[in-house]
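As agreed, record copied across for absentees:
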Amino acid sequence: MKGVRVTTGQVARAAGIAEGTIFRVFADRDELLDAVMAEAMRHDHAVREISSVSLDQPPADRLAEAADALGAHLGRMGTVAGALQESGHRRQRGEEGRRPPAGAREASMAAIREALAELFAPESEQLRISGEQAAALFLGLLFHRPQQLGAVALDTSDLVAVFLHGALAEDGAR
C-alpha cells in the first residue's frame, strides 16, 4: 500500500474501474483512504469466520480456529492503520459523517463476543461460568497475550490449552 502517496488513478486501475467512478462515491482521496480504514476495522468478516467454525470439532480446535480468525482480523486492521499512519495520512475528524458512530467499538466487541460464546454451547453444562463470560475471558487473553515470553513464543495452541485446562499440567506431565 502506498498510503497517501497513492493516486486515485492508481486505485482505479487496481480496482479495474474508471477514475471518475471513485468520485461518484468519494469526494476526494482523503475520504477514500478514510473509507479504506473504516472497511479494515469492520468486524463482520471476523464474526462470519468465527460463526462458521464447526461445533463438531473439539473445543480446543474451535477456539484455535476462532483465535486465528481474530488474529487475521487484527492483522488486517494493523496493516492498514500502520500504512496510513506511516505515510502521514490523518483520519479526518471534522465532519460528523467521518467519525465512527458512538459505541461502534463496543458494538463490534459485543458481536465478536457473542459469536465466540456460541463456540462454548456444546459444553455449556460443563462450564464453570456462562458462555458469554468464557468468551469475554478468552478475548481478554487473546488481546493481552504477549507475543513472546522470554525467548519462547506463546502459540495459539498453548494459549487455548492454558485457557481450557489451566497452567498446571495434569499429574505433573507437560
